[in-house]
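Section 4.2 – Deliverable D4.2 (structural model, holo form)

The reporting period included a commitment to supply a predicted holo structure for the target in complex with 5-hydroxymethyl-3,4-dihydroxypiperidine. Inputs used:
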Amino acid sequence: MPEPTTVAFPPGFLFGAATSAYQIEGAVREDGRTPSIWDTFSHTPDRTAGGETGDIAVDHYHRYRDDVALMAELGLNAYRFSVSWPRVQPTGRGPAVQRGLDFYRRLVDELLARGIAPALTLYHWDLPQELEDAGGWPERDTAFRFAEYAQLVGEALGDRVEQWITVNEPWCSAFLGYASGVHAPGRTDPAASLRAAHHLNLGHGLAVSALRAAMPARNRIAISLNSSVVRPLSQDPADLAAARRIDDLANGVFHGPLLHGEYPSSLLEATRSLTDWSYVLDGDLRTINAPLDALGLNYYTPALVSAASDGVAGPRADGHGSSDHSPWPGADDVVFHQTPGDRTEMGWTIDPTGLYDLLMRYTREAPGLPLHITENGAAYDDKPDPDGRVHDPERIAYLHAHLSEVRHAIADGAEVRGYYLWSLMDNFEWAYGYGKRFGAVYVDYATLERTPKSSARWYGEVARTGALPPVDARV
Ligand code: IFM
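Output (structure tokens):
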């Protein structure tokens, strides 16, 4: 019998971890930072589990040096983080606050000194509250405010950060924020959510040109989409049409204008009763369609859908929190089914083939565009053993299976350049509070002490060697 072999990744492949500002930084009132929509939302009764907030989070603002040292010790060669907009530009307008920028400059310098490539996300959901008070993402002006903020950060950090991501998961901002209301700002207005989606797209496009003007040409700009793999329950034409509708709302609404310069006509048709799309002004699609240097994909689980037999869907098993309001505008007659298979603590079915399918889809739709998996990971109910160690074999199995599919896609022609595990450490999981642990590093929330789980050591070894060990050697 042949010896089991390791599976090597291409030289220079980035093995990183990802976080976002509100989920880890804390220090919400320091150095001139003002509230974002997530501060307001999490401080509103009944919006987050147990009323938990990101006030302290995991105190990364004060512990960033130790966190970077830990990443280096583990062996990671890349780190994706986000900049808190209200820390840098508190009201969402006007000049930058130097102390806010200085924090990110110190963080980036620390990363570079340890050989870890920074990947900076400009918007991971923390809109300055003042901009929401002025109308938020459904308002066109927010897109222009975002481009101005992008320029400020580009000017300050463009000399040392080469990888830039404009917006993280605009789907969540638009549809969880403005349609189902399970995310900040908690509005439940389907028409507004579609306007928000367009203005997030426009903000991205305007930010791309602001960044290109402000930064050295070598820097690379991307966007991170939580593109869904949408599967029909059957080949029945009604189920295929349902899958198409959800695919338009999950994917087409973003990669249509971003990659092809137009919204899918089927999306415009299906949402006609909610909106006439008249806020898509001349030139917007050209702005949004600005060439990208890479595409970021965040993948967790596929969606399985069918048409409702009586035309009315029951409760949605779409994994996006519970709300009486759907995050799928104009698709109330689509049923979401639980995909069979093992699930993570989020209730999300584990299906690594979805990641392969997604990578191959983008390889077909955007040939030659480098792809980065900017998030992938799993929440488990991790607990320290009596000896203080945290063993998480399920997470190792999850990572192994997904990284194998990444390698499989590379072998089949996908230009994948990097993979970022979500998340570096346990943190504030939005409406779920601190109850869902996605970290490779365990955080004791009473002491804020960090303990690498066995998956962190395992993943560090993958990063160090650039290869996946044989499956049997994974735990
Ligand atoms: O924690 C989030 C992250 O902020 C965005 N993508 C999904 C993760 C897990 O839910």
